[in-house]
Amino acid sequence: MSESRRKFIQQVGGGLVGLSAISLLGKFTEVEATANTEVKDKPAQIRWGMVVDMSKCKEGCTDCVQVCHSRHNVPDHGNAKDEIKWIWKAPYKNVFTSKSHRYQQQGQLEKPFLTLCNHCDEPPCVRVCPTQATFRRPDGIVQMDFHRCIGCRFCMAGCPYGSRSFNWRDPRENLKQLDPHFPTRERGVVEKCNFCAERIDQGLNPLCQEACKEGVITFGNLNDPNSEIRKLLGEKRTMQRKTELGTAPSVFYVVES
Amino acid sequence: MIYNAKVVLPILILFVVVLTYPFWQGGTEQRPEPQKPAKAAQCVEDAAWMRANHMQLLDRWRHEVVRKQERSYTSTRGQVFEKSLVNTCLDCHQKSDFCDKCHAYASVKLVCFNCHLNPELVEP
């Protein structure tokens, strides 16, 4: 082999290694966590969102939970392992894991907070679903197509909010009252809050918003700067759950009045 | 000549007779007759088309409702219906008198009602 030929091969090889290193660096910067503060307003497009004002929410009241679960045929199996949840209350320390500390004001850590599916702008459950049974609607609702769910539970592993439940048992075993206008699920599928997509398509607001007598929940279009929800977000100090993960939730919380 | 024809031929003929029994015994008379609903004179599309294509129609409906948010169906006659098994189909038809009759006859197992609720059993 002549000297120049050997040199040529060495240079080409070196170049290839360099190129691949550069493209890999690009990959690393892509996954860097961001605070998701970038404004991505698309006024022509709807993005449904919700503000939960916890300063108004009464302790012990479960009106929204009851209405949601009865109208969507969500069973109560009576034990934590089989539990199915669409909307529920959990202690502050579990809802805002990254905003809790041991010297928090009296009672704050244990205070029950209303929680549901966040209908993220970047939903990890949608990314991991192998059958596209979970998908993001153009209006921002993260919807499930139960016809396609194979029960693999990847979405449950993907969701950082614990918003998804698996039907270990036939839900009809423990449904005393059935609402025929909404289907039940069957054993072996995952389910979660659907932001009342069936009502939104009819121009109605979600059941939890309607059921709450205290006005805790405000529902509306996040892309419309003149909507009630955007006005509220502009006035009050609000926070989202686990923003550091870059999921960009559509559910916001007012913690103090 | 057929080997052992005296034994083989009758058995062969009997076998063919038994095998073709369903075709010549007048099976068409035993066809199920699903009950016609009293509520409406016409189905979403005409009856013959529905008999042949209802499964494709229902499959398309569920896809369009869940994944495309298209919830109303305009029939070839221009009528508008809600795309819903429970609220539209079962509003006129009864599962036990209609769906089950043919599906039992054709031995087709339905999975619709594993999740969707049969209003006959729910409402008092």
Structure explained in plain terms:
The complex is a heterodimer of chains A (257) and B (124). By secondary structure, chain A is α+β, with helices and mostly antiparallel strands. Chain A is built from 8 helices and 10 strands. Chain A is globular. The model of chain A has no long low-confidence stretch (mean pLDDT 90). Chain B is mainly alpha-helical. Helices cover 52% and strands 5% of the residues of chain B. The longest helix of chain B has 22 residues. Chain B is elongated and about 70 Å long. The model of chain B has no long low-confidence stretch (mean pLDDT 89). Chains A and B meet through loops of A and α2 of B.
Described by its quaternary structure, the protein is heterodimer
> Given this structure, which CATH class of the largest domain in chain A is correct?
Alpha Beta
Largest interface by Cβ-Cβ < 8 Å: A-B, 18 and 15 residues
What is the helical fraction of chain A, as a range of percent? 25-40%
Strand content of chain A: 5-15%
Q: What series of H and E elements makes up the topology of chain B?
A: HHEEHHH
* H/E series of chain A: HEHEHEHEEHEEHHEHEE
Low-confidence stretches of chain B: none
Helical residue percent band of chain B: 40-55%
What is the mean predicted local confidence, pLDDT of chain A?
90
The CATH architecture assignment of the largest domain in chain A turns out to be 2-Layer Sandwich
SS field, number of helical segments of chain B: 5
Output the number of helix runs of chain A. 8
How many DSSP-defined strands of chain A? Answer: 10
CATH third-level topology of the largest domain in chain A:
Alpha-Beta Plaits
What value does the Rg of chain A take, in angstroms?
23 Å
**Which word captures the global form of chain A?**
globular
Low-confidence stretches of chain A: none
